[in-house]
Amino acid sequence: MFNKILVANRGEIAVRIIRTCREMGIRTVAVYSDIDRQALHVDLADEAVCIGPAKARDSYLNTANIISTTVLTGAEAIHPGFGFLAENSKFADMCRECHITFIGPDPEVIAMMGNKAKARQMMQQAGLPVVPGIEGILPDFDHARQAADTISYPVMLKAAAGGGGRGIRIVYNADELKKAYDTAKAEAKAAFNDDALYLEKYLEEPRHIEFQILADHYGKVIHLGERDCSIQRRNQKVIEEAPSTCLSSGLRSKMGDAAIRAAKAVNYKNAGTLEFLVDKNGDFYFMEMNTRIQVEHPVTELVTGIDIVREQIRIAAGEKLELNQEDIVIRGHAVECRINAENPELGFRPSPGKAVILLWPGGNGVRLDTAVYNGYEIPSAYDSMIAKLITHGRDRSEAINKMWRALEEFIIEGLDTNIGFLFKILSNKKFINGMISTSFIANEYNLK
């Protein structure tokens, strides 16, 4: 087992990783930008090193500084969390060349699954159903037009190197295609430095279902059940839950087997997530694979009792998975709300500022993952998510009721948040009855 791990991230995920390391008796090194000197993860780690100025490209994306800090502090491994360098295959390869353990899959797998068009082809070869679409990337607009006419509208343009909802455009007719093509390419270039696009059929009002998998270095792969991530705003997840209300036991078993088959097909190691779309007929299609821990992993932890970060570290250290598939039992229901510093009334405009007069919710079945404390200055340089509130109940109704109660207790002043908007969703009868899809927010609240 490792003696020391460097956490190459910030915010609540860095705090989350440090807590598990401490429970495992592993020392930690935090890295931080100069604007994050007062951040909680800096105080909680055993050591902390400033790696650059506020801009992410000069600090949390500065691979040379992170590798150098790892070597100088004597850390044997790097946990990348999510975002930043978590799915950067070149960084994972740098770690390997420097004899540093990257807590994640092999760089070749990250690269393969990071290219959404290649991942689609790999999953087809593994026998997984995929959304109807083109094979490979679009060489130019004329090919996009021909492909859209062949598949029939609506279609979806997606960045081949994409993630986080960027570089995606839904096109309902031929008149919209050129503008959507140009803007998707520009956005993909800005976000990923890669403007390659592919095209597939747009499934109207599907459910977004993902399966959490764990895979060790000895060929064992298991899944920890599914998460329903259908409540989204502009392809960004807002509320997640486990288990899903739309899966029968038969479909759950079928999708879980497909997730395991997919992981084995690419010789996957560590924690990962297979994301699927489920249509109104109950047919499912592979969408993408995330080669990192997910933001919404706590809902799976609450219904399974498994510390996924701990399993990541154990697998990376070469230990065998102690769990078998039959050991995985789903108990109750969990719901997660992402608390963002933003103003929903102003188009969800980010709202950085100083957090004052804090009251965190608590009680039985309530978990809060955050790095915010009273007086903390939330910077504008990074993502607007400031906390994840997760509740667990005996069933979905109880978990939702606990979430409602916990949000009522959640007090944070000095900046705007989306808590009021979350209340709207939780009180919506369609949400309460499980009548949801990826179009739920757009349709119910006219947020296209």
What does this structure look like?
By secondary structure, the chain is an alpha+beta fold. It has 3 domains: 4-88, Rossmann fold, CATH 3.40.50.20; 132-201, ATP-grasp fold, A domain (Dna Ligase, domain 1, 2-Layer Sandwich), CATH 3.30.1490.20; 207-445, ATP-grasp fold, B domain (D-amino Acid Aminotransferase, Chain A, domain 1). The chain has 15 helices and 22 strands. The protein has helices at residues 11-23, 40-44, 63-73, 89-97, 107-114, 116-125, 141-151, 174-192, 249-265, 297-304, 308-316, 396-409, 419-426, 429-432, 440-445; strands at residues 4-7, 27-33, 47-52, 77-79, 101-102, 155-163, 166-171, 197-201, 207-215, 221-233, 236-242, 270-278, 284-290, 333-340, 342-343, 349-350, 353-354, 356-359, 366-370, 377-378, 385-393, 411-413. It has an 8-stranded antiparallel beta sheet with strand order 13-12-9-10-11-14-21-19, with helices on both faces. α2 links the parallel β2 (27-33) and β3 (47-52). α4 (89-97) runs antiparallel to α5 (107-114) and α7 packs across α8.
Helix count equals 15
Q: Estimate the mean pLDDT confidence.
A: 95
Shape estimate: globular
For the record, the CATH architecture of the largest domain stands as 2-Layer Sandwich
Structural class: alpha+beta
Uncertain residue ranges? none
The helix fraction, in percent, is 25-40%
Beta strand %: 25-35%
CATH superfamily of the largest domain: ATP-grasp fold, B domain
